[in-house]
Amino acid sequence: MRTPRDIAASIEAAVQGKRALSLMEICGTHTVSLFRSGVKSLLPASLRLVSGPGCPVCVTPVGYLDAACELALREGVSILSYGDMMRVPGTSLSLAESRAMGARVEVVYSARSAVRYAMEHPGEQVVFLALGFETTTPASALAVLEARAAGLRNFSLLVGHKRVLPAMHALLEDPSLPLDGFLCPGHVSVVIGTRVYENIARSYAKACVVAGFEAESMLCAIERLVAMALSGRPAVENCYPVAVRPEGNRLALELIDRVFEPSDTTWRALGVLPESGLQLRTEFADYDAAQRFGLSLEADSHPPGCRCGEVICGKITPDACPLFRVACTPSDPVGPCMVSSEGSCAAWFKYTGATVREASSLTMRERPALGTPAAVDPARSESRSR
Amino acid sequence: MCLAVPGRVISIDENPAGALGPEGLVDFLGTKTRVSLVLVPSAEVGSWVLVHAGMALEELDAEEASRTWSYLREAGVLMGQSPEPEGERELR
């Protein structure tokens, strides 16, 4: 069996003397894994890996956060959220700051825990912050069905779910971002499958390869993406077949479709993308917190100087932002990409610059320092278990 | 946010109160959590499942589950767990 180093050597040989290539990893977990595993430092300079809009925290517009904070401060309302969202700055407050001001904000690990919380607290209006891509959406859908089966009147979702494919299409329409292929997300693809990427390979002539999160799987995908980009024969391939099937998980897709329908939604920096989000179907409108409380979620703005928007689209790397590492750090973040443990800026902060890791001088199997973050990131402890 | 982790089903409740569909008690290297099994109807006691946000999304074989745990451990996702947690031997 080939080691990661063997695969990296084969990639290097393949790109030797060829044009420079840009591949995008969509998924925030890939961004972090590429750094942590040392894969990024094993790749040749002419092969650029850019991070895409696959960190749910990073692409959530400010209007959503502001609505959540406003709701949290209302009498009788409890906000239940995944931990990743707690420290993301809204226009004036984060959820953590709202909590410090007396709002009731609880961290949960699943949407269903929020339903149980609502059952146990009948006197509170419980609002679950339903965020994330297709990996996370089935749990929100099941939570709505279970809340309805239990006749719960005090449970609703602030829906901010996003769909991966429309964002990929939007990036492909942007001429300022030349890409040669996509490293497609592992666990999102468990749900949506690999066939859904075929239109991208066919219509846009970009290769799509699904990868898991181990060094071997990511390198295998990069090797295939390079080969297909250079041969001019783009296709969809799967380097994570143990978990991902061509058709995805049919039951998960049916569950999502039972409760939600596609809707136009705002992405931070990308603006409104058609059918890129989800909304509750009319028959479940009673569980829509935005309707119940009369909130708008779509406004977007960004802090002065913050270039998270361009980072999310892969147009700049985090170190091109003037705030990076100077005014914006994991302990005092300005933009969402520095808050989320899966954000590109947080990953760059941890793994580059003053703490560049010379992975190429190590073997992939013996790299004791690589798993240890160089900088302390308080956000990590909140989100790592998901 | 979209990282799922493997666990092993140690018991199944076909009709849990307040839930739609079966739930499994799933062991994540010693930490046991109730997880919905509605998306993996063929999972049995002893099956490995890939879990995210309280739902099993897919079944895995034991070898893949073990590989996944290795990279999660390397990635520091398991910080706070003991380095040789109970149950790890079963993984091998």
Features of this protein?
heterodimer; A: 386 residues; 5-stranded parallel sheet; 4-stranded parallel sheet; disordered C terminus; B: 92 residues; alpha+beta; 5-stranded antiparallel sheet; 2 helices
Question: What is the topological layout?
Answer:
The complex is a heterodimer of chains A (386) and B (92).
Chain A (H helix, E strand, L loop, with lengths): L3 H12 L5 E7 H9 L2 H4 L4 E8 L1 H4 L2 H11 L4 E5 L13 H6 L3 E4 L3 H10 L4 E8 L4 H13 L5 E7 L2 H9 L8 E4 L1 H7 L5 H6 L3 E4 L4 H17 L4 E3 L11 H10 E8 L3 E10 L8 H5 L14 H5 L23 H4 L4 H8 L26 H6 L3
Parallel strand pairs in A: 1-2, 1-7, 3-4, 3-5, 5-6, 7-8, 8-9
Antiparallel strand pairs in A: 10-11
Helix pairs in contact in A: 1-12, 2-17, 7-8, 8-13
Chain B lengths: L4 E9 L9 E6 L2 E6 L11 E5 L2 E6 L1 H13 L13 H4 L1
Strand content of chain B: 25-35%
Query: What is the CATH architecture annotation of chain B?
Result: Roll
Low-confidence stretches of chain A: 354-386
Q: Count interface residues per chain for the largest interface.
A: A-B, 59 and 32 residues
Distance between the ends of chain A = 31 Å
- Largest sheet properties of chain B: 5 strands, antiparallel
| Strand ordering within the main sheet of chain A | 2-1-7-8-9
The overall pLDDT of chain A, averaged over residues, is 88
CATH topology of chain B: SH3 type barrels
Explain what this protein looks like in three dimensions.
The complex is a heterodimer of chains A (386) and B (92). With 386 residues, chain A is of the alpha/beta class. Chain A contains 18 helices and 11 strands. In chain A, strands 2-1-7-8-9 form a 5-stranded parallel β-sheet. In chain A, strands 4-3-5-6 form a 4-stranded parallel β-sheet, sandwiched between helices. In chain A, helix 12 links the parallel strand 8 and strand 9. The longest helix of chain A has 17 residues, at 215-231. Chain B has 92 residues and is α+β, with helices and mostly antiparallel strands. Chain B has one domain (5-79): SH3 type barrels, CATH 2.30.30. In chain B, 18% of the residues lie in helices and 35% in strands. Chain B contains 2 helices and 5 strands. Chain B has a 5-stranded antiparallel β-sheet, covered by helices on one side. The longest helix of chain B has 13 residues, at 62-74. Chain B starts with a strand and ends with a helix. Chains A and B meet through helix 2, helix 7, helix 8, helix 10 and helix 13 of A and strand 5 and helix 1 of B.
